[in-house]
Protein backbone atom coordinates (compact mmCIF):
# COMPACT_ATOMS: atom_id res chain seq x y z
CA UNK A 1 0.00 0.00 0.00
CA UNK A 2 1.41 3.37 -1.00
CA UNK A 3 2.37 5.57 1.97
CA UNK A 4 0.80 3.13 4.43
CA UNK A 5 2.99 4.42 7.25
CA UNK A 6 1.73 7.96 6.68
CA UNK A 7 -1.86 6.72 6.71
CA UNK A 8 -1.18 4.64 9.78
CA UNK A 9 0.20 7.55 11.76
CA UNK A 10 -2.66 9.84 10.84
CA UNK A 11 -5.24 7.23 11.80
CA UNK A 12 -3.61 6.38 15.12
CA UNK A 13 -3.39 9.96 16.29
CA UNK A 14 -6.64 11.27 14.87
CA UNK A 15 -8.86 8.52 16.22
CA UNK A 16 -7.96 9.23 19.83
CA UNK A 17 -8.07 12.99 19.53
CA UNK A 18 -11.49 13.20 17.92
CA UNK A 19 -13.34 10.64 19.99
CA UNK A 20 -15.72 13.31 21.30
CA UNK A 21 -16.85 14.43 17.86
CA UNK A 22 -16.32 11.76 15.22
CA UNK A 23 -18.41 8.95 16.79
CA UNK A 24 -21.43 11.25 17.01
CA UNK A 25 -21.38 11.53 13.24
CA UNK A 26 -21.97 7.81 12.74
CA UNK A 27 -25.20 5.92 13.30
CA UNK A 28 -25.72 4.99 16.97
CA UNK A 29 -25.29 1.32 17.86
CA UNK A 30 -26.52 -0.64 20.85
CA UNK A 31 -24.12 -2.32 23.23
CA UNK A 32 -25.00 -5.67 24.83
CA UNK A 33 -23.59 -7.10 28.06
CA UNK A 34 -23.19 -10.84 28.60
CA UNK A 35 -22.25 -12.51 31.87
CA UNK A 36 -21.14 -16.13 31.49
CA UNK A 37 -22.54 -16.03 27.92
CA UNK A 38 -25.97 -14.96 29.21
CA UNK A 39 -27.26 -11.59 28.04
CA UNK A 40 -28.13 -9.19 30.84
CA UNK A 41 -31.77 -8.25 30.32
CA UNK A 42 -31.90 -4.56 31.12
CA UNK A 43 -35.32 -2.94 31.13
CA UNK A 44 -35.69 0.74 30.30
CA UNK A 45 -32.23 1.55 31.62
CA UNK A 46 -29.57 0.30 29.20
CA UNK A 47 -25.78 0.69 28.94
CA UNK A 48 -24.49 4.05 27.74
CA UNK A 49 -21.14 5.07 26.31
CA UNK A 50 -19.66 8.35 27.50
CA UNK A 51 -16.25 9.51 26.24
CA UNK A 52 -15.26 5.95 25.37
CA UNK A 53 -16.29 4.46 28.74
CA UNK A 54 -19.25 2.08 28.94
CA UNK A 55 -21.49 2.75 31.94
CA UNK A 56 -24.03 0.12 33.00
CA UNK A 57 -26.94 0.16 35.47
CA UNK A 58 -25.06 -0.85 38.61
CA UNK A 59 -27.66 -2.83 40.52
CA UNK A 60 -28.85 -5.02 37.63
CA UNK A 61 -25.31 -5.70 36.43
CA UNK A 62 -24.17 -6.81 39.88
CA UNK A 63 -27.23 -9.05 40.18
CA UNK A 64 -26.26 -10.75 36.91
CA UNK A 65 -22.88 -11.51 38.50
CA UNK A 66 -24.53 -12.94 41.63
CA UNK A 67 -23.43 -9.91 43.59
CA UNK A 68 -25.59 -7.57 45.67
CA UNK A 69 -25.34 -3.80 45.76
CA UNK A 70 -25.37 -2.44 49.33
CA UNK A 71 -25.13 1.26 48.55
CA UNK A 72 -23.48 3.68 46.14
CA UNK A 73 -22.84 7.32 46.98
CA UNK A 74 -20.16 9.94 46.44
CA UNK A 75 -18.41 7.77 43.84
CA UNK A 76 -18.05 4.94 46.40
CA UNK A 77 -19.68 1.55 45.89
CA UNK A 78 -20.31 -1.09 48.57
CA UNK A 79 -21.39 -4.52 47.41
CA UNK A 80 -21.42 -8.13 48.57
CA UNK A 81 -19.57 -10.55 46.28
CA UNK A 82 -19.38 -14.24 47.19
CA UNK A 83 -20.39 -13.38 50.75
CA UNK A 84 -17.62 -10.79 51.09
CA UNK A 85 -18.25 -7.06 51.32
CA UNK A 86 -16.16 -5.03 48.89
CA UNK A 87 -15.64 -1.29 48.55
CA UNK A 88 -14.53 0.35 45.34
CA UNK A 89 -14.06 3.89 44.12
CA UNK A 90 -15.39 4.80 40.71
CA UNK A 91 -16.96 7.64 38.79
CA UNK A 92 -20.74 7.20 39.01
CA UNK A 93 -23.58 8.63 36.96
CA UNK A 94 -27.18 9.01 38.03
CA UNK A 95 -29.76 9.07 35.27
CA UNK A 96 -33.47 9.15 36.06
CA UNK A 97 -32.74 7.88 39.55
CA UNK A 98 -30.64 4.94 38.34
CA UNK A 99 -26.97 4.63 39.32
CA UNK A 100 -24.54 3.80 36.49
CA UNK A 101 -20.90 2.73 36.86
CA UNK A 102 -18.07 1.81 34.43
CA UNK A 103 -18.46 -1.83 33.43
CA UNK A 104 -14.73 -2.52 33.56
CA UNK A 105 -14.50 -1.31 37.16
CA UNK A 106 -17.54 -3.28 38.30
CA UNK A 107 -16.55 -6.46 36.49
CA UNK A 108 -12.98 -6.43 37.73
CA UNK A 109 -14.04 -5.81 41.34
CA UNK A 110 -16.46 -8.73 41.18
CA UNK A 111 -13.72 -11.06 39.91
CA UNK A 112 -14.68 -11.07 36.25
CA UNK A 113 -12.54 -10.64 33.18
CA UNK A 114 -14.02 -7.95 30.94
CA UNK A 115 -13.63 -8.30 27.17
CA UNK A 116 -15.01 -6.36 24.21
CA UNK A 117 -16.28 -8.10 21.06
CA UNK A 118 -16.30 -5.29 18.51
CA UNK A 119 -17.98 -7.31 15.76
CA UNK A 120 -21.11 -7.93 17.83
CA UNK A 121 -20.67 -4.83 20.03
CA UNK A 122 -20.91 -7.04 23.09
CA UNK A 123 -19.15 -6.74 26.45
CA UNK A 124 -18.32 -10.21 27.70
CA UNK A 125 -17.78 -10.96 31.40
CA UNK A 126 -16.43 -14.31 32.58
CA UNK A 127 -14.85 -15.37 35.89
CA UNK A 128 -11.12 -14.83 35.97
CA UNK A 129 -9.18 -18.03 35.56
CA UNK A 130 -6.40 -16.87 37.84
CA UNK A 131 -3.02 -15.39 37.03
CA UNK A 132 -1.89 -15.74 33.46
CA UNK A 133 1.49 -15.20 31.81
CA UNK A 134 -0.26 -13.80 28.76
CA UNK A 135 0.32 -10.13 28.02
CA UNK A 136 -0.84 -7.97 25.17
CA UNK A 137 2.67 -6.93 24.17
CA UNK A 138 5.72 -4.94 25.11
CA UNK A 139 4.56 -1.51 24.05
CA UNK A 140 6.78 1.54 24.55
CA UNK A 141 7.99 2.99 27.86
CA UNK A 142 10.98 5.12 28.83
CA UNK A 143 12.09 6.52 32.20
CA UNK A 144 13.60 9.90 33.07
CA UNK A 145 14.78 10.95 36.55
CA UNK A 146 15.82 14.33 37.91
CA UNK A 147 15.86 16.06 41.28
CA UNK A 148 14.08 13.16 42.97
CA UNK A 149 11.28 13.19 40.36
CA UNK A 150 10.56 10.32 37.99
CA UNK A 151 8.71 10.58 34.69
CA UNK A 152 7.61 7.49 32.79
CA UNK A 153 7.05 8.16 29.09
CA UNK A 154 4.53 5.70 27.63
CA UNK A 155 3.69 5.44 23.94
CA UNK A 156 -0.01 4.95 23.35
CA UNK A 157 -1.98 3.51 20.51
CA UNK A 158 -5.16 5.54 20.75
CA UNK A 159 -7.33 2.80 19.26
CA UNK A 160 -6.87 -0.82 20.31
CA UNK A 161 -8.68 -4.09 20.93
CA UNK A 162 -8.80 -6.79 23.58
CA UNK A 163 -5.54 -8.38 22.38
CA UNK A 164 -3.58 -5.47 23.91
CA UNK A 165 -4.49 -6.58 27.42
CA UNK A 166 -3.42 -7.42 30.02
CA UNK A 167 -0.51 -5.00 29.70
CA UNK A 168 2.93 -6.17 30.80
CA UNK A 169 3.62 -5.90 34.51
CA UNK A 170 6.27 -3.18 34.17
CA UNK A 171 3.70 -0.77 32.78
CA UNK A 172 1.15 -1.57 35.48
CA UNK A 173 3.76 -1.32 38.26
CA UNK A 174 5.01 2.06 37.07
CA UNK A 175 1.45 3.36 36.89
CA UNK A 176 0.58 1.99 40.33
CA UNK A 177 3.40 4.08 41.84
CA UNK A 178 2.56 7.28 39.94
CA UNK A 179 1.27 10.41 41.64
CA UNK A 180 -0.03 11.88 38.38
CA UNK A 181 -1.21 10.65 35.00
CA UNK A 182 -0.48 12.87 32.00
CA UNK A 183 -2.36 12.49 28.71
CA UNK A 184 -2.90 14.56 25.59
CA UNK A 185 -6.58 15.10 26.48
CA UNK A 186 -8.63 13.58 29.29
CA UNK A 187 -11.18 11.73 27.15
CA UNK A 188 -13.05 10.49 30.22
CA UNK A 189 -14.38 14.00 30.88
CA UNK A 190 -17.53 15.06 29.12
CA UNK A 191 -16.99 18.16 27.02
CA UNK A 192 -18.71 21.13 28.62
CA UNK A 193 -20.91 23.53 26.66
CA UNK A 194 -17.99 25.76 25.71
CA UNK A 195 -15.92 22.80 24.48
CA UNK A 196 -18.86 21.41 22.52
CA UNK A 197 -19.20 24.76 20.80
CA UNK A 198 -15.51 24.73 19.91
CA UNK A 199 -15.86 21.22 18.47
CA UNK A 200 -18.86 22.14 16.34
CA UNK A 201 -17.44 25.48 15.23
CA UNK A 202 -14.19 23.88 14.07
CA UNK A 203 -15.74 20.72 12.62
CA UNK A 204 -18.65 22.18 10.65
CA UNK A 205 -19.02 24.94 8.07
CA UNK A 206 -20.49 28.06 9.59
CA UNK A 207 -20.95 30.12 6.42
CA UNK A 208 -23.73 28.20 4.69
CA UNK A 209 -21.38 26.24 2.44
CA UNK A 210 -21.05 22.45 2.42
CA UNK A 211 -18.38 19.88 1.70
CA UNK A 212 -19.05 19.88 -2.05
CA UNK A 213 -18.15 23.59 -2.15
CA UNK A 214 -14.67 22.91 -0.77
CA UNK A 215 -13.47 19.74 -2.51
CA UNK A 216 -13.37 18.62 -6.12
CA UNK A 217 -16.36 16.87 -7.65
CA UNK A 218 -14.26 13.70 -7.92
CA UNK A 219 -13.41 13.76 -4.21
CA UNK A 220 -17.01 14.46 -3.24
CA UNK A 221 -18.22 11.56 -5.39
CA UNK A 222 -15.78 9.19 -3.70
CA UNK A 223 -16.98 10.31 -0.27
CA UNK A 224 -20.60 9.60 -1.20
CA UNK A 225 -19.74 6.17 -2.57
CA UNK A 226 -17.89 5.07 0.56
CA UNK A 227 -20.56 6.44 2.89
CA UNK A 228 -23.19 4.44 1.00
CA UNK A 229 -21.02 1.32 1.29
CA UNK A 230 -20.93 1.97 5.04
CA UNK A 231 -24.73 2.15 5.30
CA UNK A 232 -25.01 5.93 5.40
CA UNK A 233 -26.55 8.46 3.05
CA UNK A 234 -24.08 9.82 0.49
CA UNK A 235 -24.63 13.37 1.73
CA UNK A 236 -24.45 12.47 5.43
CA UNK A 237 -21.18 14.37 5.90
CA UNK A 238 -22.02 17.47 3.85
CA UNK A 239 -21.99 19.78 6.88
CA UNK A 240 -18.48 18.75 7.92
CA UNK A 241 -15.02 19.80 6.81
CA UNK A 242 -12.67 17.45 4.91
CA UNK A 243 -10.50 16.64 7.93
CA UNK A 244 -13.58 15.55 9.90
CA UNK A 245 -14.87 13.45 7.02
CA UNK A 246 -11.53 11.68 6.69
CA UNK A 247 -11.35 10.97 10.40
CA UNK A 248 -14.90 9.64 10.49
CA UNK A 249 -14.34 7.33 7.52
CA UNK A 250 -11.13 6.09 9.17
CA UNK A 251 -13.14 5.37 12.29
CA UNK A 252 -15.81 3.45 10.39
CA UNK A 253 -13.21 1.04 9.04
CA UNK A 254 -11.15 0.70 12.21
CA UNK A 255 -14.24 -0.05 14.31
CA UNK A 256 -15.26 -2.74 11.84
CA UNK A 257 -11.79 -4.24 12.25
CA UNK A 258 -12.30 -4.30 16.02
CA UNK A 259 -10.18 -1.30 17.04
CA UNK A 260 -11.83 1.48 19.05
CA UNK A 261 -10.83 4.43 21.22
CA UNK A 262 -12.74 2.77 24.06
CA UNK A 263 -9.92 0.21 24.25
CA UNK A 264 -7.09 2.69 23.63
CA UNK A 265 -4.06 2.59 25.91
CA UNK A 266 -4.43 6.22 27.02
CA UNK A 267 -8.11 5.84 27.89
CA UNK A 268 -7.33 2.60 29.74
CA UNK A 269 -4.98 4.44 32.07
CA UNK A 270 -7.29 7.44 32.36
CA UNK A 271 -10.05 5.19 33.64
CA UNK A 272 -7.64 3.58 36.12
CA UNK A 273 -6.50 7.03 37.28
CA UNK A 274 -10.13 7.94 37.95
CA UNK A 275 -10.49 4.75 39.98
CA UNK A 276 -7.38 5.61 42.01
CA UNK A 277 -8.47 9.24 42.35
CA UNK A 278 -5.11 10.57 41.17
CA UNK A 279 -4.92 13.82 39.18
CA UNK A 280 -5.05 13.62 35.38
CA UNK A 281 -2.91 16.28 33.71
CA UNK A 282 -3.76 17.38 30.17
CA UNK A 283 -0.73 18.23 28.02
CA UNK A 284 -3.00 19.65 25.32
CA UNK A 285 -6.62 20.71 24.86
CA UNK A 286 -9.59 20.13 22.58
CA UNK A 287 -9.07 23.60 21.16
CA UNK A 288 -5.40 23.12 20.37
CA UNK A 289 -5.81 19.70 18.80
CA UNK A 290 -8.94 20.38 16.78
CA UNK A 291 -7.57 23.77 15.82
CA UNK A 292 -4.48 22.05 14.46
CA UNK A 293 -6.56 19.87 12.12
CA UNK A 294 -8.77 22.78 11.14
CA UNK A 295 -5.67 24.88 10.47
CA UNK A 296 -4.43 22.58 7.72
CA UNK A 297 -4.48 24.25 4.31
CA UNK A 298 -7.37 23.48 1.97
CA UNK A 299 -4.99 21.52 -0.24
CA UNK A 300 -3.64 19.36 2.60
CA UNK A 301 -7.13 18.64 3.96
CA UNK A 302 -8.31 17.36 0.59
CA UNK A 303 -5.10 15.41 0.04
CA UNK A 304 -5.42 13.69 3.40
CA UNK A 305 -9.08 12.94 2.70
CA UNK A 306 -8.17 11.37 -0.64
CA UNK A 307 -5.47 9.28 1.07
CA UNK A 308 -8.24 7.79 3.21
CA UNK A 309 -10.70 7.36 0.34
CA UNK A 310 -8.20 5.80 -2.06
CA UNK A 311 -6.96 3.32 0.56
CA UNK A 312 -10.30 2.59 2.22
CA UNK A 313 -10.24 -1.11 1.33
CA UNK A 314 -6.97 -1.69 3.20
CA UNK A 315 -7.32 0.67 6.16
CA UNK A 316 -8.04 -2.26 8.46
CA UNK A 317 -4.73 -3.84 7.42
CA UNK A 318 -2.82 -0.67 8.27
CA UNK A 319 -4.20 -0.46 11.77
CA UNK A 320 -3.40 -4.14 12.32
CA UNK A 321 0.19 -3.47 11.25
CA UNK A 322 0.48 -0.68 13.76
CA UNK A 323 -1.03 -2.87 16.47
CA UNK A 324 1.62 -5.51 15.83
CA UNK A 325 4.33 -2.85 15.90
CA UNK A 326 3.08 -1.68 19.29
CA UNK A 327 2.95 -5.20 20.69
CA UNK A 328 6.50 -6.01 19.61
CA UNK A 329 7.71 -2.65 20.88
CA UNK A 330 9.98 -2.24 17.87
CA UNK A 331 11.74 1.14 18.04
CA UNK A 332 13.06 0.56 14.51
CA UNK A 333 9.57 0.28 13.06
CA UNK A 334 8.26 3.16 15.17
CA UNK A 335 11.10 5.42 14.02
CA UNK A 336 10.52 4.42 10.40
CA UNK A 337 6.85 5.27 10.76
CA UNK A 338 7.58 8.61 12.44
CA UNK A 339 10.18 9.60 9.85
CA UNK A 340 7.77 8.84 7.01
CA UNK A 341 5.70 11.86 7.95
CA UNK A 342 8.52 14.35 7.41
CA UNK A 343 7.96 14.34 3.64
CA UNK A 344 5.07 16.77 4.06
CA UNK A 345 6.41 19.83 5.81
CA UNK A 346 3.06 21.35 6.76
CA UNK A 347 1.68 18.10 8.16
CA UNK A 348 4.90 17.26 10.02
CA UNK A 349 5.24 20.68 11.63
CA UNK A 350 1.65 20.79 12.89
CA UNK A 351 1.21 17.14 13.84
CA UNK A 352 4.56 16.47 15.47
CA UNK A 353 7.18 19.23 15.67
CA UNK A 354 5.13 21.99 17.30
CA UNK A 355 3.26 19.64 19.62
CA UNK A 356 6.40 17.74 20.68
CA UNK A 357 8.12 20.96 21.73
CA UNK A 358 5.20 21.95 23.95
CA UNK A 359 4.90 18.47 25.49
CA UNK A 360 8.64 18.25 26.16
CA UNK A 361 8.56 21.66 27.86
CA UNK A 362 5.78 20.50 30.19
CA UNK A 363 7.65 17.29 31.02
CA UNK A 364 10.76 19.38 31.69
CA UNK A 365 8.70 21.36 34.20
CA UNK A 366 7.60 18.19 35.99
CA UNK A 367 11.22 17.05 36.29
CA UNK A 368 12.39 20.38 37.64
CA UNK A 369 9.78 20.38 40.39
CA UNK A 370 10.97 20.03 43.98
CA UNK A 371 8.01 17.80 44.89
CA UNK A 372 9.87 14.49 44.35
CA UNK A 373 6.90 12.82 42.67
CA UNK A 374 6.24 10.33 39.89
CA UNK A 375 4.50 11.14 36.63
CA UNK A 376 3.09 8.59 34.19
CA UNK A 377 2.83 10.30 30.79
CA UNK A 378 0.82 8.58 28.04
CA UNK A 379 0.81 10.17 24.58
CA UNK A 380 0.80 8.80 21.02
CA UNK A 381 3.86 6.61 20.48
CA UNK A 382 4.82 8.51 17.33
CA UNK A 383 5.68 11.59 19.43
CA UNK A 384 8.74 10.08 21.09
CA UNK A 385 11.35 9.13 18.47
CA UNK A 386 13.16 10.96 15.69
CA UNK A 387 15.09 14.21 15.38
CA UNK A 388 12.10 16.19 16.60
CA UNK A 389 10.80 13.60 19.07
CA UNK A 390 10.17 14.17 22.75
CA UNK A 391 13.09 11.93 23.76
CA UNK A 392 15.59 13.88 21.64
CA UNK A 393 14.21 17.17 22.95
CA UNK A 394 14.63 16.01 26.56
CA UNK A 395 18.15 14.75 25.87
CA UNK A 396 19.02 18.16 24.46
CA UNK A 397 17.87 19.63 27.78
CA UNK A 398 20.42 17.42 29.55
CA UNK A 399 18.24 14.48 30.62
CA UNK A 400 19.11 10.78 30.30
CA UNK A 401 16.20 8.80 28.90
CA UNK A 402 16.21 5.02 29.43
CA UNK A 403 14.03 2.46 27.63
CA UNK A 404 12.21 0.21 30.06
Describe it for me?
The chain has 404 residues and is α+β, with helices and mostly antiparallel strands. It has helices at residues 4-17, 58-64, 103-109, 169-176, 193-203, 217-229, 242-256, 265-276, 286-294, 298-310, 315-328, 331-339, 345-368, 390-396, and strands at residues 32-35, 38-39, 48-50, 53-57, 67-73, 76-81, 84-89, 93-95, 98-102, 112-117, 122-127, 140-146, 149-156, 180-183, 280-282, 374-380, 401-403. A 6-stranded mixed sheet has the order 15-14-16-13-12-17, sandwiched between helices. The protein has a 4-stranded mixed sheet with strand order 2-1-11-10, with helices on one face. Strands 3-4-9-8 form a 4-stranded antiparallel sheet. Strand 8 (93-95) and strand 9 form a beta hairpin. The model is unreliable at 1-28 (pLDDT under 50).
Structural class: alpha+beta
Rg result: 21 Å
Low-confidence stretches: 1-28
Distance between the termini: 32 Å
- The shape, in one word, is globular
Give the strand content: 15-25%
**SS element count, helices:** 14
Nearest-integer average pLDDT = 83
Q: Roughly what percent helix?
A: 40-55%
Number of strands: 17
Tell me about the biggest sheet? 6 strands, mixed
Strand order of the largest sheet: 15-14-16-13-12-17
